[in-house]
Amino acid sequence: MNAHTLMEGAADAPFYLPQGDECEIFATAARNDLPLLLKGPTGCGKTRFVSHMAATLGRPLYTVACHDDLSAADLIGRYLLKGGETVWVDGPLTRAVREGAICYLDEVVEARKDVTVVLHPLTDDRRILPIDRTGEELEAAEGFMLVASYNPGYQNILKTLKPSTRQRFLAVEFDFPVQEHEIAVVARESGLDPERVKPLVRLADKLRDLKGQDLEEGVSTRLVIYAATLIKQGMPVERAITAAMIEPLTDDADVKRGLLDLVTAIFG
Ligand SMILES: Nc1ncnc2c1ncn2[C@@H]1O[C@H](COP(=O)(O)OP(=O)(O)OP(=O)(O)O)[C@@H](O)[C@H]1O
Ligand SMILES: [Mg+2]
């Protein structure tokens, strides 16, 4: 099976243009009960990729946006008071484990440490989810798959995955698509003519070269789509670029001026 046949696997799957062999890796991991970790900068297509693959494989998808307050109970479930009665309510992870769905933990490094403890028995060959509060020990249903993502660019020493956690996952690195692919993606998502998208993508590439110097992070494909969408709606190109590709990147007036010089160099 190649990426092309996979992309056409489900007619109503969200559009995703593969960058490499990530669709095959995902499909193979899914068939073999292996968890998958997606690494890459913001707005490069990780979330879209997961929705596309879930639809293509015909598996339900539970997405959890992890944050620094997210606890194991948020994932597993808790007792809630309903009409005077205490009832157990499954969290998204438990639901996915029971139903054989894909559970996608977005920005997993943000989650509290007790979350990783829950993930360990699920991500080795035991594939079990112990629920302490109810005394249950759930075996993952066929089709259950754990997918997690994070952005290594923001990593700090306090927020990183322990080797014992990361070495339970297959991992794929994502980056921004090559220019030709990014033009196709932006044109498709915004409806703007590819010829008019081209210079926006060239600008994005130049802005990405500044990562680590003037900018913390290169401009995302998401922002290029925003710029193209504004232009498609009739906004003047320079205004659209400022609002979508310059202002979101920095607050520093000097850096902004430097970025605008790049815009002038490309758009004249
Ligand atoms: N290869 C691709 N095929 C189709 N669309 C893409 C692709 N790459 C990026 N996109 C587009 O870029 C937008 C941003 O991608 P997405 O939300 O998946 O990024 P992300 O990597 O999950 O970012 P974050 O880390 O901020 O959550 C998507 O809405 C989609 O329109
Ligand atoms: Mg995302």
Provide the fold topology:
Elements: H1 3-7, H2 22-31, E1 36-39, H3 46-57, E2 61-65, H4 72-76, E3 77-82, E4 85-90, H5 92-99, E5 102-106, H6 113-122, E6 128-131, E7 136-139, E8 145-150, H7 163-166, E9 170-173, H8 179-190, H9 194-209, H10 221-232, H11 237-246, H12 253-267
Helix pairs in contact: 8-9, 8-10, 9-10, 9-12, 10-11, 11-12
The chain binds adenosine-5'-triphosphate and magnesium ion.
What structural class should be given to the helix and strand makeup?
alpha/beta
> Nearest-angstrom radius of gyration?
21 Å
Shape summary: elongated
**Integer count of domains:** 2
Average pLDDT for all residues: 91
Provide the CATH top-level class of the largest domain: Alpha Beta
Specify the CATH homologous superfamily of the largest domain.
Answer: P-loop containing nucleotide triphosphate hydrolases
The string of secondary-structure elements, in order, is HHEHEHEEHEHEEEHEHHHHH
Number of helices: 12
Could you characterize what this model shows?
- This protein is an alpha/beta fold.
- It has 2 domains: about 170 residues, Rossmann fold (3-Layer(aba) Sandwich); about 90 residues.
- Helix content is about 45%, strand content about 15%.
- The chain contains 12 helices and 9 strands.
- The strands form 3 sheets. Strands 2-5-8-1-9 form a 5-stranded parallel β-sheet. A two-stranded antiparallel sheet has the order 3-4. Strands 6-7 form a two-stranded antiparallel sheet.
- Strand 6 and strand 7 form a beta hairpin.
- Helix 9 crosses helix 12, helix 10 packs antiparallel against helix 11 and helix 11 packs across helix 12.
- It starts with a helix and ends with a helix.
- It binds adenosine-5'-triphosphate and magnesium ion.
- Adenosine-5'-triphosphate (ATP) binds next to helix 3, helix 8 and helix 10.
